[in-house]
Amino acid sequence: MTTSAAARADSEGTILVVDDDVTVRDVVRRYLELAGYTVALAGTGQEALRAHEQRPADLVVLDLMLPDLDGLEVCRRIRGAREASDVPVVMLTALGEEENRIAGLQLGADDYVTKPFSPRELALRVTSVLRRVRPAADTAGSGDVVTDGPLTLDPAARTATLHGGGLALTTREFDLLWFFLTHPGKAFTRQQLLERVWGWDFGDQSTVTVHVRRLREKIERVPAEPARIATVWGVGYRYDAGLRS
After folding, report:
1. Fewest Cβ atoms nearer than 10 Å: which of 41, 108, 159, 188?
2. pLDDT 10s digits, 111-168
3. Phi, psi torsion values for 156, nearest 5 degrees
4. Start-end of CATH 3.40.50.2300 domains in the chain
5. CA distance linking residue 231 with residue 215, whole number of Å
6. pLDDT digit string, tens, across residues 88-101
């Protein structure tokens, strides 16, 4: 593992890039440095875990296909390394890896980019994810706490509770739940949610499906029979507010 010599005092944050292809690592590093980030590099899953343990990254760019531990296992261990670990993860996947991509999202990955990819697009995706983790200074403290019965979200503190207990939500899960809570009773298509929550003009709509399923597992009494996040057949999803149990 190496850390870029281009690290600056005004760095936008540290990005850990994990890929066994030296060329991919180098190209991604250069584009992220141009965007103002400090970049750490790892070529294997074990190197990535050691690097993140020694210096937790602000975001991890993680290839699914690694020579020792695969990307899914690395993601699983990073998520379990600290209680409710919420470091954002952007996965790199090949065109034919849809099942692994879905599995990555289920593990809490915040975004993915399909190989072959544009390094510039990847840098933009990284910035987009981090902006959601770090609200702008002029809005970070201005968000109102949102509640629906026993469910509470504090956008300034980025915390969520249900019946007084903390909810371990990833960045995207928090953003999606906040969006639902602030737009109760309105039906949104998956594409609209991609645009409003992810900031994507296009993308795989199964991303939304996976995140809705994960949210239901965390906030619904019976996930298979959701009372809060309702499926609107032929449209998408709607948040039904007013639940008091």
Report:
1. 159
2. 888 888 888 889 988 988 887 666 543 333 346 899 999 999 998 888 899 998 999 8
3. -70, -45
4. 2-133
5. 13
6. 889 888 766 667 77
CATH 1.10.10.10, the chain: domain bounds: 146-239
Q: Which residue has the tokens 């609209």?
A: 192
β-sheet bridge partners, residue 16: 40, 60
Domain 2-133 carries which CATH code?
A: 3.40.50.2300
Looking from the CA of 55 toward its CB, the CA atoms found within 13 Å total: 13
Contact 2, 50 (CB under 8 A): no
pLDDT tens track for 36-77: 999 999 999 999 999 988 888 999 999 988 988 888 888 888
Which amino acid, residue 171? Answer: T
